[in-house]
Design a protein that fits this description.
The complex is a heterodimer of chains A (32) and B (212). Chain A is mainly α and 32 residues long. Chain A has one helix and no strands. Chain A has one helix at residues 14-18. The radius of gyration of chain A is 15 Å and the shape is elongated. Chain B has 212 residues and is mainly alpha-helical. Chain B is 54% helix and 4% strand. In chain B, the strands form two sheets. Chain B has a two-stranded antiparallel ribbon. The interface between A and B is medium-sized, with 22 and 40 residues.
């Protein structure tokens, strides 16, 4: 894999991805 | 306190006044705020079965807009809220957990809660396999397909950053250092709504009236 063909996700931290789960966003309690 | 309130309707609170002031003593919430949170709790706990407790399906309905399906993260959130491990979330458990999400709650409590959330098997470590399992779960939840080598690369880099002693698992101390370096990872651990929950749930006003 050449550097300019890097996947956009490779710079993402695993926990950044995990934190995107709707279940981990409790502000859902306060919204309709 | 809530005991000075009088309601024109028959009193049907499922939570006694004494318990409210006890909860206020052990959390950041005032009795008024707890009453507002009780409105939220009633809404959540009656969405499927109106029995005064939040069932897993009700938590799922609130967070995912559907009561069906399996979700790893939902299971973890539910387990952490369900302190008594009796399969439902009661009001005091709901308040204890939300207390951690208060904007003024100590950062250490937030760090600890997030650690327990991600320590799927409760071994005291966030293991590589667990991180992989969670990444796969979020990719499924968001319908994103990622080639295996990219997935491995993400996990590799994350562990290179977080696993200071290179033993293949993240202990609590490493976790703390890691999230303090990447504070955005704790973003979900703070709910700004909790700072003025009485305005978010103004229905409180209709339920309680101060005596003349």
């Amino acid at each position: 894999r050449s550097p300019d063909a890097q996947h956009p996700y490779t710079h993402i931290n695993a926990f950044q991805l995990i934190g995107m789960s709707s279940c981990l966003d409790l502000s859902g309690f306060f919204e309709k | 306190g809530c005991c000075s309130h009088r309601s024109r309707r028959p009193i049907n609170r499922g939570f006694a006044c004494g318990n409210m002031s006890h909860l206020a003593d052990e959390t950041r919430f005032t009795v008024n705020e707890l009453e507002a949170l009780y409105e939220l709790f009633k809404k959540l706990s009656s969405s499927i079965i109106d029995d005064g407790s939040i069932h897993k399906e009700e938590l799922q309905l609130a967070l995912l807009q559907t009561p069906q399906g399996e979700n790893l993260f939902l299971d973890r959130v539910f387990d952490l809220f369900d302190e008594k491990k009796n399969g439902v979330i009661e009001f005091d458990e709901f308040v204890h957990a939300l207390n951690v999400f208060h904007p003024y709650a100590p950062i250490d409590d937030k760090i600890d809660f997030a650690f327990r959330l991600y320590d799927l098997r409760q071994t005291g470590f966030i293991e590589r396999e667990e991180v992989k399992q969670m990444v796969i779960a979020i990719l499924m939840e968001s319908d994103v397909k990622l080639p295996d080598d990219i997935l491995e690369e993400i996990i590799e880099k994350t562990f290179a950053d977080a696993d200071a002693d290179k033993d293949g698992k993240i202990n609590k101390e490493e976790w703390k250092v890691f999230v303090l370096r990447h504070p955005s990872l704790l973003k979900n651990m703070t709910l700004p709504y909790l700072k003025d929950v009485t305005t978010v749930f103004p229905s409180y006003i209709f339920h309680t009236e101060v005596e003349d």
